[in-house]
Amino acid sequence: MQFRTQIPIPKSNSPIDYTSRIVSLGSCFAVNMAEQFTYFKFQNTSNPFGILFHSQAIEKLIDFAVSEKQFTSEDIFFHNERWHSFDAHSDLSCTDASELLHNMNAKVKSLQQELLQSTHIIVTLGTAWVYRNKESNTIVANCHKVPQKQFDKELLSVAVITKSLENIIASIASVNTNTKIIFTVSPVRHIKDGFVENQISKSHLITAIHQVLKSKSANLSYFPSYEIMMDELRDYRFYAEDMIHPNQIAIDYIWERFAATWISEAAYKTMEEVNVIQKGMAHRPFNPQSESHRKFEAQLTEKKGKLVSQYPFMKF
Q1: What's the chain look like in SS3?
Q2: The pLDDT value given to residue 244
Q3: Quick one: which of 35, 30, 19 has its CA closest to 58?
Q4: 304 in Cβ contact with 270 (< 8 Å)
Q5: Which residues contact 181 (CB under 8 A, 6 or more apart)?
Q6: Does residue 237 contact residue 197 with C-beta atoms inside 8 Å?
Q7: How far apart (Å, rounded) are the C-alpha atoms in residues 28 and 126?
Q8: How far apart are CA 55 and CA 162, in angstroms?
Q9: Distance (Å, rounded) from C-alpha 213 to C-alpha 196?
Q10: Range scoring the smallest mean pLDDT among 43-57, 193-207, 284-298
Q11: How far is it between the farthest Cα atoms of the chain?
């Protein structure tokens, strides 16, 4: 007997392997998936401007990267003793204005190179709810705890999100026509917006993504992260203590579904070798000075050397 349904996901015709270069952009779930790529030592870049929750923020970042635009002093502001940008996550904020601008522009230039070299770009949308700065009349990526009265909250329409995604696709294609773009919707529940409002938001994102997929481009795909969480893992035991974010079990499961459909079977052996090394490095010996532990470390060093000689980009 089957006690749950499993979402059928077709295998990709352009799978990821250890020659691939992956760029992950978007919500905190994009970070969760990028951490898995990092653990298994794939070549990947994740959110150079920090977590970006909506399509408008991702669109602006990609536009800056492919157009070689530069951030200026007009793009930053001082608040709570730190310099911030409404276009970046607070992870980039700092106490020195020139340092912030330097870091932001360096990341834009770096992202341009990553997009040029990428084979796969994963775009994870988190919400259709956005905040518009009243003074500049622009939608921000992050409010940086600036008083709420300075913003208007809006729900992006399906048409607006669709246009934003089309702009993202066009910008990427202007520098790289071969890369595969994988869209997905974050399973994180944005219930601070309201329970019904969160569902409306997710439905706008899903509908907009499938509008752009109607082009039938071989470079565009959808991975059902949100649907896996809502259907296959429909139980609170798969959530973290906040009952909002997927817990590690859920993240690992969704990663397994992704790996089964998007990672080349030829890469599985290398992934297992990396996993053995990672577990070995995490091992805490009872007696570090013992002969058995010295042999264990020697064997681990040998395994690392073999992999690094085959894949020089790997760092352990």
Answers
A1: CCCCCCCCCCCCCCCECCCCEEEEEECHHHHHHHHHHHHCCCEEEECCCCCCCCHHHHHHHHHHHHHCCCCCHHHCEEECCEEECCCCCHHHCECCHHHHHHHHHHHHHHHHHHHHHCCEEEEEECCCEEEEECCCCEEECCCCCCCHHHEEEEECCHHHHHHHHHHHHHHHHCCCCCCEEEEEECCCCCHHHCHHHHHHHHHHHHHHHHHHHCCCCCCEEECCHHHHHHHHCCCHHHECCCCCCECHHHHHHHHHHHHHHHECHHHHHHHHHHHHHHHHHHCCCCCCCCHHHHHHHHHHHHHHHHHHHHCCCCCC
A2: 94
A3: 30
A4: no
A5: 120, 121, 123, 168, 169, 172, 219, 220, 221
A6: no
A7: 8
A8: 9
A9: 26
A10: 284-298
A11: 68
Q: Which residue has the tokens 């294609």?
A: 173
Paired with 22 in beta bridges are 44, 120
Q: What is the pLDDT, as a whole number, of residue 284?
A: 83
DSSP β-bridge partners for residue 83:
78, 94
Q: Cβ distance 31 to 47 under 8 Å?
A: yes
Length of the chain, in residues: 316
Of 122, 141, 152, whose CA–CA distance to 54 is shortest? 141
User: What is the structure's pLDDT at 112?
Assistant: 96
Neighbours of 158 (CB within 10 A): 17
Output the pLDDT for position 276: 94
Residues 191-200: contacts with CB within 8 Å, 24+ apart?
A: 191/244, 193/127, 193/129, 197/129, 197/155, 198/127, 200/128, 200/155
Using alpha carbons, select from 45, 225, 222 the residue that is nearest to residue 126: 225
Instruction: Give the up-direction half-sphere exposure of residue 233: CA atoms within 13 A in the CB hemisphere.
Output: 24
Distance CA 195, CA 215 (A): 32
Q: Which two tokens stand for residue 285?
A: 């010996």
Tens digit of pLDDT for each residue in 180-210?
999 999 999 999 999 999 999 999 999 999 9
Number of Cβ atoms within 10 Å of the Cβ of 228: 22
In single-letter form, the type of residue at position 35 comes to E
